[in-house]
Design a protein that fits this description.
The protein is an alpha/beta fold and 229 residues long. It has one domain: TIM Barrel. Helices cover 45% and strands 17% of the residues. It is built from eleven helices and eight strands. Strands 1-2-3-4-5-6-7-8 form an eight-stranded parallel β-barrel, surrounded by seven helices. Helix 4 links the parallel strand 3 and strand 4. Helix 4 packs parallel to helix 5 and helix 9 packs parallel to helix 11. The chain starts with a strand and ends with a helix.
C-alpha cells in the first residue's frame, strides 16, 4: 500500500479552511483535527469536516488514568472519525483500557500511540528525566504500545527505521515532521521529506503549513502525493 497524505487543519474553525478543503476534495482524502480546532469548536467541527467527504484523524493525545481515557474513547466513538491518538507515556494499563473501549465502541477507529513529540530534542527529553536519544525512547514506548494492543503509532520520521526493525509489519506508522525540501522546518526538530519518509516505512505522513501556505494548495498536495508514490 502506498503511503498516504494526511492534511493538518491548523485553524480554530472549519470555516477558516473550508474553501481550501473544497478545492482539495478528490486530491486529499485524510485530514487531521487537533486540539486547537477541537477545543474551539467541539465535536461539531469533526462532523462538518466529515460531511465534506474526508476521513478524520482526531489528534487529542489522550493521557489520563485508565478509566478516564477509556470513557473518552467511548465518547468520541460517536463521532465520524477514523483515527484517534493517545500518549503511550500513560502506560500499559491505560493503553489496554483504551484498546478495549475502542474494540467495543469504535471498531472502525485506528487507535494511535504518540511516542515522543517531534518538537522534542534529546536535550528536552533529558530535562524531564528521560536519558538517551529520542529514538531509544520511541522504540521503548512503541514496543510497549504494540504489546498493549495498539496497532498504530505516531513518531518522528527519523524513528521509522528503528521501529520497522522491531515491530510487526502491519503496525501503522503515522509521521508528522514532514517538510518538502523547500519548506521551513517551523517548530519541528526531527524532519524528513515526504519521499524519504515513505521509503523509511511511513504508512501516513502529516503535512499542514507547506500545503496551506503554498500559492496553489492543490498543486502542493499533488506534488507531495506524487513524491510518495
Amino acid at each position: 500500500m502506498p503511503c498516504e497524505l494526511i492534511l493538518v487543519l491548523d485553524a480554530q474553525s472549519p470555516r477558516e479552511v473550508t474553501p481550501a478543503l473544497r478545492q482539495l476534495q478528490g486530491t486529499v482524502t485524510w485530514v487531521k483535527v487537533g486540539l486547537e480546532m477541537y477545543t474551539a469548536c467541539g465535536p461539531d467541527c469533526v462532523r462538518e469536516i466529515a460531511d465534506l467527504g474526508f476521513n478524520v484523524f482526531l489528534d487529542l493525545k489522550l493521557h489520563d488514568i485508565p478509566n478516564t481515557v477509556a470513557k473518552a474513547v467511548e465518547s468520541v466513538s460517536r463521532l465520524p472519525i477514523r483515527m484517534l491518538t493517545l500518549h503511550t507515556g500513560g502506560g500499559r494499563e491505560m493503553m489496554q483500557w483504551a484498546v478495549k473501549a475502542q474494540q467495543q465502541h469504535a471498531p472502525q477507529v485506528l487507535l494511535l500511540g504518540v511516542t515522543v513529540l517531534t518538537s522534542m530534542s534529546a536535550a528536552g527529553l533529558n530535562e524531564i528525566g528521560v536519558p538517551g536519544a529520542p529514538a531509544d525512547q520511541v522504540v521503548r514506548l512503541g514496543r510497549l504500545a504494540v504489546d498493549s494492543g495498539l496497532r498504530g503509532l505516531v513518531c518522528s520520521p527519523l524513528e521509522l527505521a528503528p521501529l520497522r526493525a522491531v515491530l510487526p509489519a502491519d503496525v501503522a506508522l503515522v509521521t508528522p515532521g514532514i517538510r518538502p525540501r523547500d519548506a521551513k522546518a517551523d517548530d519541528q526538530t526531527r524532519v524528513m521529506t515526504p519521499g524519504e519518509a515513505a521509503r523509511a516505512g511511513a504508512s501516513h505522513i502529516v503535512v499542514g503549513r507547506p500545503i496551506f501556505k503554498a500559492p496553489d494548495p492543490v498543486a502542493a498536495a499533488r506534488a507531495i502525493i506524487a513524491e510518495l508514490r
